[in-house]
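#onboarding

Welcome to the new folks! Below is a worked example of what a typical request in this channel looks like: someone posts a single protein sequence, and someone else replies with the predicted structure as tokens. Don't worry about understanding the tokens yet, we'll cover that in week two.

Example request:
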Amino acid sequence: MKKVFLILTILIASIALSACERDAEVLRVGMDLKYPPFETVDLNNDPMGISVDVALALGEYLGREVEIVNTDFGSIIPALDSGEIDIAIASMSITAARMEIVDFSDPYFFFKIITLVNQEFATANNLNENSTVEQLLAIESARYVGIAAQVSSSIPQSYGKTVTQATDLGTAVESIAQGTSDILLMSANPVVDGYKANMSTTMIVWDPFVSSPIGMAVKKGNTELIEQANAFIATFDDEGGLYDVLATKWNATLLENLGRYGLDFYINE
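Example response:
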């Protein structure tokens, strides 16, 4: 009886060890699935989007199965640190503050910070979609609105501009649409969404204030995975590489969303 028990114990332990080894081969990729078209879900609530495709392509490159772990954006870095996820592919900007606590890959996208402008203000100051950042900054009477601790406030403040603080993005956009403020800086998708909701009272100026590099992030010290990620990213620009694959699949969606640009808007710095 003891011999049978010992055999069963060894068998169970072997199965458990085998399962752990299989799990170790799964690449757990963290992202926040609330930001289409980069990170979102389909009608069946399955992950989809440009970042999802990047993650799956990384898994194929490494010969590893990929598990997308839906993680609130603010919890992604703690999830890396705890080992809950192996890598973040989450439209995360490479910043000095974040580089102190995680390791980043080379950038593979660039997110532009562009401007939503009140239409009457734009007309009065001879602004159009192709106006420049320098032209905007030269208008001394411009009233800026932004959100505390976000680029919508910090960038104009860095130029010495006074920024009225809005409680959230919706309030800031409403301020531009109603004419109580003149200029709002944000990344492309929220600016375009704000314009589409207020097409008669707002306008987009496309010249970017900042082009923010986007990288994959891993736990500090995980040099093996970051080197693999960089080798993978180095193939993106090859003929038939991932940029071409993503452009074929997503250009129509991006053109519909942005109304002006496709994937090149995010590839070119």
